[in-house]
From TrEMBL:
This is Dihydrofolate reductase. GO terms for biological process: dihydrofolate metabolic process; folic acid metabolic process; one-carbon metabolic process; tetrahydrofolate biosynthetic process. Belongs to the dihydrofolate reductase family. Its EC number is 1.5.1.3.
Amino acid sequence: MIAGIWAEDAQGLIGSNGILPWFLPSELQHFKQTTMGQVILMGRKTFEGMHKRVLPGRTTIVMTRDETYKVADEAVLVFHNPEAVLNWYQGQEPESAKDLYITGGAEMFIAFKDSFEQLYRTIIAGEFEGDTYFPKALEMTNFKEVSSVTHPADEKNDYAFTVKRYEIKR
Ligand SMILES: NC(=O)c1ccc[n+]([C@@H]2O[C@H](COP(=O)([O-])OP(=O)(O)OC[C@H]3O[C@@H](n4cnc5c(N)ncnc54)[C@H](OP(=O)(O)O)[C@@H]3O)[C@@H](O)[C@H]2O)c1
């Protein structure tokens, strides 16, 4: 199963200067719970925005066109084009195949727009400053919403947010 997972604000903003525009611990917890034990893929800019910190308990794929790019961690695989990722993923043993989560940024949602079977979209009830928006090239009308859960703001999370899950229309 290949899924997209991201958080956007009320205007579709997803990034600011290489990092997330907000700090919402409960939203990060949702990301962790959803992706734990699976494969997460991110663009080189997102990886470097995290100071190359590798998230534990998951295989990480970093995408770059730079053939010389190296990451000194065996939990990280580096790929140079989406086709190579999809070939690698389809070659996994079906019994042990993990889910592949495309986690951003915007360039990754474009690169894999025709591969998503599910989407995990968090909508944050706020407006932030930033420079990177969720791409319009990913046609949300191809997906049907199957669940929607709202988390209210609380002492640790300044904004309410809603996690929506979508499945591709067949
Ligand atoms: N809100 C969220 O859920 C969320 C999630 C993830 C990221 N973000 C934010 O999004 C922003 C970054 O997004 P972004 O779109 O600018 O960058 P990005 O998708 O993280 O990374 C872009 C890089 O990926 C590589 N790349 C792109 N297309 C490729 C392809 N077809 N084949 C191989 N490599 C490819 C290139 O690396 P090279 O230049 O090395 O060739 C490109 O510069 C950051 O602010 C980040 O915090 C937000």
